[in-house]
Amino acid sequence: MSEGFNMGFDAAAPDPETWDTAAPAAASHALPADGQSLSLRVSAITMVAETIRAIELVSRDGAPLPGFTAGAHINLKLPGGLSRSYSLTNGPETTDRYTIAVNRDVASRGGSAYIAEKLKPGDVLTVDPPHNTFPMVAGAELSAFFAGGIGITPVLAMIRHLERLGQPWKLFYAARNRASAAFVAELEALEVQIPGRVHFHFDDEAGKVMPLLKLAAGIPKAAHVYCCGPGKMIEIFKASAGWRPQDNVHVEHFAGTNARPTTAFTVVLKRQGKEFHVPAGESIMQVLMDNGIAVAHSCREGVCGTCETRVLEGVPDHKDNVLSPRERESNTLIMTCCSGAKTDRLVLDI
Ligand code: FES
Known about the structure:
binds FE2/S2 (inorganic) cluster; 19 strands; alpha/beta; Rossmann fold
């Protein structure tokens, strides 16, 4: 199973009665302060649902933007030191712009509120290049997507890409109601072209949440299945997928697990020739930052993948929502913002 973060750090706690969710500002994947950030101009802002804005970003000089793969996200650097990540909704064929969709979250920690209330066409934003923690596998016999609320954003990029490739897909898209669902007209048009592949579920019309278990059971075993939505939806999706090859199951989370390591250890920075004590309950990232060592970060809760670091020796105690089971077992990667060590020493490629 591959797991990514979800573009939703502004997301409020999901409403347990609906698959819809507040806002998926993807966690921020901030690249190191190495000059890779982009300076992009907001070229358009369009409402695509009751509270969801599509934002289009272009380079200031018209130059092509760094490429990406379907499912990728970008991090926006917003005023007040905020860093927020949002999935790209355009397919990777588009090289002259990045498009994202941002829900105005009533429980916003600042990102979606700023975007809804202050951001306007012509504004210039600092943006980290695309990073993908939720990659799509092209060439599948079938790609089946389960999206809840703003979780449609990375899925839309995948669908657009699959359309370009001429490969089969199915979508099950749940939202609180029709008005809160984004990109409905585009999806309806795709359904008209080839009927039977777009399934909307509006809670208010159905009087219940989407019957995910039942729907997922009808997807062939050879398909690659994807889920992006609130935590409860992902839980049920995972429960529905136990019989599938785990490499065919892909999820992206809105939030971290809140779990933290409970044992102390020594972190060794191999390239820098330094080592530090990491107290129980403390993060590697915090210890390094306290000691003046810059660490790329954004969400700080194990969902964006920004702080991913290579492990050279030792066994990580993973607490993130980014790495797949296979990646965890390899003991070669760690998210330093939330994970710890099961061994006394952990040697990192820093
Ligand atoms: Fe987002 Fe660590 S900063 S996973």
